[in-house]
# Entry
Amino acid sequence: MSKTTVIAFANNKGGSGKTTSCSNIACAMALAGKKVLMIDGDMQLNLTISYFDEETALEYAQTGKNIYTAIKEEKDLSACIVPTEYEGLDIVPSSSLMSSIEFDLFTKWQREFILKKCLEPVRARGYYDYILIDSPPTLGGWVMNIMCASDYVVIPVEASPWGLFGIANMFEFFNQVKTLAPKLEVLGIAVTKADERKKYFKQTLETLKATDGARLFDNYIRVDSAVEWAQDNSKPVVAYKKTSRSAVEYTKLAEEIMYYGNRQKRN
# Structure
């Protein structure tokens, strides 16, 4: 059994806090002594910009050191890995050319497993404890690729009236992917942008707790301006302002994800 655990962060609803969660949980894992690789699978490059300024992110996009080049050429993802400023934390940047990834995948043999094949040499080396993949807010061939390459899926959900919109479609899509990747599991649902003063916050929790086949993580992320300040400085909040409420919450959520991931893997 591979020592490397691959976790996809996915939700077809935009604004769910998916990229922010992926970025901060990855950094929290690294700060806890784990070796972590992030993969930016979204054409918006937001995960990449969480660690590099826009000019550097665009440079990676143009020089071929990105996920799009690896998928299009079906090559070992190792060549596209770049280090961040944090020890034990690396990233495969994205590219704006990812906008055409669905078309590119359509022409490939066994197109649902291209990312899995590109990622296999990285997993086989066993260097990383975790590989976290940020998905675009869609449900298509590329997200299917991401899920087929993963062990688990974490679904961030915004605690708002619109946050639950499309969650049923998300699980329907997940069940379709399970026919191709039977070992894939939903590790849990992570509530983000929570405001405990709002009535709909409790309604969101109650609805998610009643969702069949999915764990609702105990730790949720409340609204915190420190997240936006961190993003403005191209840093994850767990490193930018470690004492902030959101940094503490993301650290606890990362610990919970590692706990359940390790427990389910042993089973």
